[in-house]
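Field: COMPLEX_INPUT
Field: COMPONENT_COUNT = two
Field: RESIDUE_TOTAL = 438
Field: MODE = joint
Values follow.
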Amino acid sequence: MSSTVAPLTVHGMSASGNCHKVRLLLEQLGTRYAWVEVDVPGGQTRTPQFLALNPNGRVPVLQRRDGRVLTESNAILYWLAEGTPYLPTDGSQRAQALGWMFFEQYSHEPCIAVARFFCGWTGLDSSRRAELPRLRERGHQALAVMEQHLARHDWFTGPAYGIADIALHAYTAVAHHGGIALDDDSSIRAWLQRVGQTAGFVPMPQPDARVLERIGRSS
Amino acid sequence: MSSTVAPLTVHGMSASGNCHKVRLLLEQLGTRYAWVEVDVPGGQTRTPQFLALNPNGRVPVLQRRDGRVLTESNAILYWLAEGTPYLPTDGSQRAQALGWMFFEQYSHEPCIAVARFFCGWTGLDSSRRAELPRLRERGHQALAVMEQHLARHDWFTGPAYGIADIALHAYTAVAHHGGIALDDDSSIRAWLQRVGQTAGFVPMPQPDARVLERIGRSS
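Field: COMPLEX_OUTPUT
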């Protein structure tokens, strides 16, 4: 779809969980959008053009036809979901959903997504890989908090699937790319299956062969 | 105030910016609350009692009289602010405010609050202090994004002061504790002054003398 006609344009990297969150919700909502692929490892988020769009230099960015811009994946999810079944109307449930989304960005993504990034997108001899044991330990701590919740609840967004599930699904589904296995997390594995069966679900595309080869040699 | 009569109880550490956010909004709203001081360095967030309240083992926690619990400082702010002037009603403005609050927890707090923690709450010979140069560099990057916004806008929450300002104020106001100066950030300094002049503003209490002494020797 051309960005001149679509009401929304997503600037994102397809292999990024944060970007895939936005794509998944847009697909499930059936909203028309254009996708502009951004080459983050190639430096495209550091160009003057991109920094004019998001001074924080991160993807995803959602651009509306009138030029207005939204940043931060979970804030974008919230904006897209207002007035839809993917966000509860009850204030307490909304706050619980937001609580899980802040948990995702503070306690989950910085371990699980960063471990995946180091395994797939840095050289096998990168000194940054020294952080992997600590990232994996903290990733398992975050997963334990999720497992405890899912032992008693089906979803993170309230009584039904919604944006907190989308936010937490993104990197949990690919935790193994960073060497973080879900062997001890049977409730999480069952929840991943439930998310995968929701209407309109689309999985995150696989990273390219070179990234997958590095991941295979990083465990 | 006793927690048996107050409608809300905050479990928090007074010298924590994340906890002070909640206190500041409650004071500005004029809401009655009880405050239960939690000794985080002393391990009180790791007890079975606390983990039953918040399995993620973090403060602040907001407990309602009916026992319901909310975690994550910015989700608590959002819940408290709904229907008040501290959160816009316009969907776009709410999403922008949330965007800044996710920015705060992902790009700002993990640098600026953690640098402050290392300077004030770890021994002068702690190996963790090796991370300070990198934390300070990233802290200045986050401040530069804020400075750019404030050069053209008065507030982060929309047209008026609100919860995104409260979230970003918490650790920006004490960035110097972590050795992060605001010398080049005149718009941020003016905004800090504006926040300090809002109705009902209360500053975060100073850390104790031992912490302040360590901070003084850490720059």
